[in-house]
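Troubleshooting: if your tokenizer reports a length mismatch, compare your output against this known-good record of 268 residues.
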Amino acid sequence: MAEPQTGLGSELRSEGLSVDGWLGGRLTLVQPTRGHRVGSDAVLLSAAVGSVDGRIVDVGAGVGAVGLAVVSRSARATADLVEIDPELARLAAGNAARNALTSRIRVFQADVGDAQARRAAGLADEAADCVFTNPPFFDPRTARVSPDPSRARAHAFLPDASNDAPLIGWVRACLALLAPSGRLVMIHRPDALAQILTAVGNRAGALALLPVHPRAGSSAHRLLISAVKGSKAPLRIAPALVLHQTDGRLTAETAAIHNGEALIDWGA
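Known-good structure output:
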């Protein structure tokens, strides 16, 4: 959820871009006015990652919202923002500068699923303390994809006849970037859980699943997942998060999260 700002320069409007305050105005983001825009999923992922020191990697970073939010919480954090779309990668770099975080941010325009290409770009395996991601939710072979190229690329994996399980490959690429004992955090649909568990396999443990419900009494529509590379600790179900009250307003907890005033509680 982004809060529009007034006084947008005509040069940005002419490029189809907006300037938006995010997380209660703690960050300022330039993003496309059409197509995929920073929304509630990014807010939830940012709050689920929490505060992290060391090297972090935001895979599928878009305009950089989540990575910038996490870096802004700790003076000891540095981030690599990985985005396949060259225009979004350009905007991510600009947003790092706009928020005075350039010295602690690197932006990579790369396909994370192509191990050779990501290494050639400078993304080393087993070097990150935390990797977080909001992957595309859909497979273009089984779901209707938006005609808008930017929205389609954000919501669905690129067609690839040689890869019949793109989400599994995406998760395994994220795990490959993690150092031993590093943490993976992601958000997805609950019906993707089987594929996610297959991707993780015995590569990580201490899995925590946190269901996100639109309102009390409704089925979860999102699932936050946390895992630790190399851990043997068992899976657990974390306390669920309910987004809205019966009148449609955000609950006090989720309003605080959206305003950047609180993080998600994963429980004990």
